[in-house]
Amino acid sequence: MAQGEDYSYEIFSPEQLDNLLAPIALYPDPLLSQVLVAATFVDDVDEAARWVRANGVNGIDEQPWDVSVRAVAHYPSVIGRMADRIDWTTSVGQAYVNQSTDVMMSIQRLRRMAHNAGNLFTTPQQQVLIEEDYISIVPYDAAYLYVPIYDPYICYYRRPVWGLAITFSIGFLIGAWLNRDCDWHHHRIYYHGWHGRGWVERSRPRVHLSEIYVSHRYENVEVNRRIVDRHVILGNINRYNSVHRDVNYNNIRANNERINRQNHVRPPEQPARPPVNNRVMNRNMDTTNPRLDQYRGHEGAQRPERPAPAPQPQAQPRPARPAHTPPAARPAPTPPAARPTPTPPAARPAPTPRPAPHVFGRGEGNFDPRASSQRGQSSRQQMGQPRSTPRAAPAPRAQGKPAPAASGRRKP
User: Fold this and answer.
1) Inside any domain, residue 110
2) Residue 11 has what DSSP assignment?
3) SS3 breakdown of the chain: % helix, strand, coil, rounded to 5?
4) For residues 237 and 87, is the Cβ–Cβ distance under 8 A?
5) Do 182 and 136 touch, CB atoms closer than 8 A?
């Protein structure tokens, strides 16, 4: 959040601060100082309230909350009220971080109003010290602190018809956790470390000092400045109008809405991301084409390019490959039917006229001149038929084989 665009830019008016601080302005100074600082640690406040509801005040000192929250947690009604009204608590913390001096001055105005109305005075529970410039409220008892209970709509204006405008809770022990106080001269909260006068001096003998709360590390009162970034439902604090009835927080609301509009200018830039999801389509089309919205490109270029998406099915291995391979690959092996054409080596069976020699072999024992001549003619015809092949020449050689048979005739 840029400087000048947070809650510190649109500050609370004095009237708004009066309404906001009226419920706690009459708290004793030691408790009030811790409440103002704890209001800047609202997450710790919520956790502390849950702890106290479940476990009481046991174990508070060992918790990791801010020291101011641990101090307030010793007063269950106070920490519970802060957690139940978290928008109000957050607004108080923001006001103290941004306008600490204005906050302290508002508290003094409210105390003057309550005193002038006759409702703020010293009682057995608290001591009201009226100075020229300020009014301080401190514990009257050295051992116990009492939390005031009052109606802001009454105690700042008039005395009630009956009874007192301010009553008190039961007394809570004063402990080392009340280690801070209000410096009204300088409009600040300071760490006293249990060295001082007045109520601190009276209570010190009864307080067990522990490093948990009494330490040099607390000399600088630290607040959570990030509280100014926390969102507040301002409708929940408009009800706090006990002092100035005609005052609301609409100007703060308008400022917050202006800031929100500025902060939400960036998200609309995110719709530029959808093109990232269209990269699969864009890789097959010209995204710079001005006619991209008309059929997603030129019509003449669209149809020839549609086969290009066909490679996409090939990227899907199983549907594409079986579709193309069966028609082209399997007919290709069948052309081996062309190989039977070289089987005209069926001419090789032509040598099967080898039965000619076999014919001569049969007649070696009983020679018949007619049969031999007929067979010779048939063999010549059979051997003469394969003239197309040059291998028919060996057929005459088969006729030479009877020569040895002729020599046999001469023997008788």
Assistant:
1) yes
2) P
3) 50, 10, 40
4) yes
5) yes
Determine if the pTM surpasses 0.70: no
Sort strands 180-183 and 144-150 into parallel, antiparallel or unpaired: unpaired
Which bin fits 193, alpha (ψ -120 to 50), beta or left (φ > 0)? left
Q: Are 319 and 313 contacting, i.e. CB atoms less than 8 angstroms apart? A: yes
* Residue located via tokens 């920490």: 79
Nearest to 209 by CA among 38, 56, 61: 61
What's the number of domains the chain is made of? 1
Asked whether residue 149 is domain-assigned, the answer is: yes
Q: Say which residues have a Cβ less than 8 Å from residue 318's Cβ, sequence separation at least 6.
A: none
Neighbouring residues of 321: CB distance < 8 A, sequence distance ≥ 6: 314
Which helix (H) or strand (E) segment is 127 a member of? strand 126-130
User: Worst-scoring range by mean pLDDT, 15-24, 54-63, 74-83, 396-405?
Assistant: 396-405
pLDDT tens per residue across span 262-306: 544 444 454 444 444 444 444 455 555 555 444 444 444 444 444
Range of the domain at 153: 14-260
276-287 exposure pattern, b = at least 16 Cβ within 10 A, e = fewer = eeeeeeeeebee
Helices (H), 120-183: 152-155
Q: What number of CA atoms fall less than 13 Å from residue 23's CA on the CB side? A: 14
Helices (H), 119-164: 152-155
Kindly give the pairing relationship between strand 144-150 and strand 126-130: unpaired
Residue with tokens 């389509």: 281
Say if 103 falls within a structural domain. Answer: yes
Query: For residues 243 and 156, is the Cβ–Cβ distance under 8 A?
Result: yes
Q: Find, among 136, 148, 147, the residue nearest to 196 by Cα.
A: 136
Q: Which two tokens stand for residue 236?
A: 């929940």
Residue with tokens 């302290």: 104
User: What SS3 class is residue 242?
Assistant: coil
